[in-house]
Amino acid sequence: MKFTLFFCIFLCPCITICLADSDNLQDTCPTATTGKQTVFINGFPCKNPNSIVASDFKSSKLSHPGDTGNFFRSSLTLDMAADFPGLNTLGLSIARTDLDVDGLTMPHSHPRASEIFFVSTGVVFAGFFDTQSKLFSKTLKPGEVFVVPQGLLHFFINTGDEAAAVFSVLNSQNPGVVKIADAAFELGDEEMVDKLVRKIKSAAALEVKASGIQNVTPTDF
């Protein structure tokens, strides 16, 4: 009994100490660009502090529209610590979504990150499903922001008459992505993909016509 009590008293502070170092231990830690990876850690190795420069903290990757000449008329450009060194250890990544007229980002989720996105140009209908299969959706204009909780299925669709651009910030340097089309449908199953697209577009049309509607369920499609 005394040994058990002593063990608990000793173990609790040790656990606390181990958890206390979850934040950054240094000011900066840009990703070190190495050749073949030989050490696997939860993140990337840091550059030598003497070789850190201001350009490590700048990226122009999102400055140009992506190619929307595809079936969904959309493009996603993601900038993570692997390509943007200054993001390493900060728990952040950024993205740009370009949507042509009627362009759509198919339902997907980020298992390791919440997402907040800002509409730069155009009019975008955005929505996400919670674990009760309820769809929360809203039409967004330039300057407006929408947030998607971690791991929940979400999508965007351009409901305006011009190209739209959306910029996102995710609270993980490697948020991951699970695409419902890839997970649920066989490659080339255009009929099922087209059916899903039409359901999403019908929900968008409903919200546009009745702007007071904020929540609908998938059965309302």
From TrEMBL:
It comes from the Eukaryota. InterPro entries: Cupin_1, Germin, Germin_Mn-BS, RmlC-like_jellyroll, RmlC_Cupin_sf. It comes from Populus euphratica (Euphrates poplar). Oxalate binds at H110, E115. It is found in: Secreted, Extracellular space, Apoplast. SUPFAM superfamilies: RmlC-like cupins (SSF51182). The gene is LOC105118813. Keywords: Apoplast, Disulfide bond, Glycoprotein, Manganese, Metal-binding, Secreted, Signal. This is Germin-like protein. GO terms for molecular function: manganese ion binding. It holds the Pfam family Cupin_1. Belongs to the germin family.
